[in-house]
């Protein structure tokens, strides 16, 4: 039986946050170098948190990841895109929170209708695609406004718009596949492990 | 591996910067990132550069640590700068090829963006070199406190953050151990095509999560045994105090802002 007291809840979330922090800094574990781009595996952790601990906690874990992305965009950017895009907290934090929310609710909703494994896969895909699509939309919204572009010191960023979209899109699809493959592989044993106690 | 970590690079010391209130340091670092966008000409960047050098000097930490902070990012910075250089138009055009233009504004803009990166990295390195991670967590708690009005669980989140920071090195060791154990079983990390690399992550994550669940369970029992109730009214072991020097630093930043506004084009 799952222990539902406050202390356990708090420490399990702390562990997930610790894993997210580590994934941000250890290569091969947090991100897979893939040509010029880095495919992240951090969203998998967020999806796992959302499936096992529920949408609210998934949102929190996603929020922590967003916050780290936001801070790193200034201090230690992970890709050439980061300083242009993720310095805007709406672009860096909001989509990541929604990964948790969407993946969590999709799983709860689908788990009643179809088998557990496909439910997990669909939840993972939904969560990841929401992140990608939202980042794309927000880039589209924010970086076509000259005033905002000016504030970021990149007067001509509209010219970069197409490039940004291509790069983020090229990341999103393999990341969704990764999440769909990995999430059920990890969540199934974890759920069993969690239910055993 | 640990050396690359943003947290845990703390270097103990007794300098002026070390003794500042962590809340102040955190807020001022963010404030600094804000005002850096005010700079738009040579004099303002020079001014910021001198201010940053003064801060580095006051921390009595060797310059080498800061340069080491920039080094792993240098290619990325250069790439961003090049994008800026070639996609900004205006002023005299030196060279052009299709959509790529090497212009006067582009070059100047590139230099500014390079400076901005280096300055921000220096400041954030200064923050993490002079502030222990747990003090940073305390500072974040203090800054988040106003969010209690909207029923945001500030105390819980702060405690979570402290626990997470405490367990980062532990889980890091564990990750390395698991990686080696899986290597001994023949898993190749960082080799093969994309799909094989993705598969290699699975035997890493499962044991790590299982051990995290076990650890969380132990920790919860330990917390309960010590009577953890959660939330309001817990007393603190580390109490943050605001000194005169903190006020002085705030005033220095306000003065810097004034100078920047006065000098900017």
Write structural notes for this entry.
- The complex is a heterodimer of chains A (197) and B (265).
- Chain A has 197 residues and is mainly alpha-helical.
- Chain A has one domain (6-196): Arp2/3 complex 21 kDa subunit ARPC3 (Orthogonal Bundle), CATH 1.10.1760.
- Chain A contains 9 helices and 2 strands, in the order αββαααααααα.
- Chain A has helices at 6-25, 42-53, 55-75, 82-85, 89-92, 94-111, 116-142, 146-151, 157-196, and strands at 31-34, 37-40.
- A two-stranded antiparallel sheet of chain A has the order 1-2.
- In chain A, strand 1 (31-34) and strand 2 (37-40) form a beta hairpin.
- The longest helix of chain A has 40 residues, at 157-196.
- Chain B is mainly α and 265 residues long.
- In chain B, helix 2 (42-58) packs parallel to helix 5 (104-130), helix 2 runs antiparallel to helix 9 (244-263) and helix 6 packs antiparallel against helix 7 (154-184).
- Chains A and B meet through helix 1, strand 1, helix 2, helix 3 and helix 9 of A and helix 4, helix 5, helix 7 and helix 8 of B.
- Chain A: The chain crosses the membrane at residues 7-26, 32-53, 60-78, 90-110, 122-143, 163-187.
């Amino acid at each position: 039986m799952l222990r539902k007291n406050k202390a356990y809840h708090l420490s399990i979330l702390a562990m997930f946050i610790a894993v997210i922090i580590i994934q941000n800094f250890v290569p091969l574990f947090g991100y897979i170098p893939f040509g010029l781009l880095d495919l992240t595996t951090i969203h998998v952790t967020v999806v796992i948190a959302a499936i096992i601990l529920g949408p609210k906690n998934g949102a929190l874990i996603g929020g922590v990841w967003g916050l780290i992305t936001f801070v790193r965009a200034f201090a230690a950017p992970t890709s050439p895109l980061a300083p242009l895009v993720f310095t805007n907290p709406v672009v860096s934090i909001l989509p990541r929170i929604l990964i948790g929310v969407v993946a969590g609710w999709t799983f709860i909703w689908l788990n009643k209708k179809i088998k557990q494994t496909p439910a997990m896969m669909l939840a993972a895909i939904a969560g990841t695609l929401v992140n990608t699509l939202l980042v794309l939309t927000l880039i589209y919204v924010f970086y076509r406004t000259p005033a905002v572009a000016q504030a970021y010191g990149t007067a001509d960023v509209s010219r970069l718009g197409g490039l940004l979209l291509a790069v983020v899109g090229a990341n999103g699809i393999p990341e969704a596949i990764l999440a769909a493959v990995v999430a059920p592989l990890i969540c199934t044993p974890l759920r069993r492990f969690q239910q055993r106690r | 591996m640990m050396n690359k970590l943003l947290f845990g690079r703390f270097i103990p010391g007794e300098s002026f910067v070390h003794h500042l209130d962590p809340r102040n340091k955190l807020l001022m670092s963010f404030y600094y990132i804000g005002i850096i966008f005010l700079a738009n000409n040579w004099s303002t960047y020079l001014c910021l550069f001198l201010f940053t050098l003064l801060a580095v000097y006051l921390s009595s930490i060797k310059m080498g640590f800061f340069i080491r902070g920039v080094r792993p990012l240098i290619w990325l910075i250069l790439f961003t700068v090049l994008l800026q250089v070639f996609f900004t138009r205006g002023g005299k055009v030196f060279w052009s090829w299709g959509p790529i233009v090497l212009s006067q504004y582009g070059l100047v803009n590139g230099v500014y963006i390079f400076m901005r990166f280096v300055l921000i990295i220096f400041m954030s390195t200064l923050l993490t070199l002079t502030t222990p991670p747990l003090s940073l967590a305390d500072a974040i708690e203090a800054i988040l406190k106003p969010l209690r009005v909207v029923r945001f669980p500030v105390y819980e989140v702060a405690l979570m953050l402290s626990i997470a920071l405490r367990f980062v090195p532990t889980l890091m060791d564990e990750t390395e151990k698991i990686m080696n154990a899986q290597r001994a079983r023949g898993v190749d990390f960082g080799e093969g095509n994309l799909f094989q690399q993705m598969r290699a992550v699975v035997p890493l994550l499962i044991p790590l999560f299982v051990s995290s669940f076990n650890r969380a369970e132990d920790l919860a029992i330990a917390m309960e045994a010590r009577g953890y109730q959660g939330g309001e009214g817990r007393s603190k072991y580390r109490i943050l105090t605001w000194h005169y020097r903190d006020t002085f630093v705030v005033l220095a930043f306000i003065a810097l802002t004034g100078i920047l506004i006065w000098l900017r084009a």
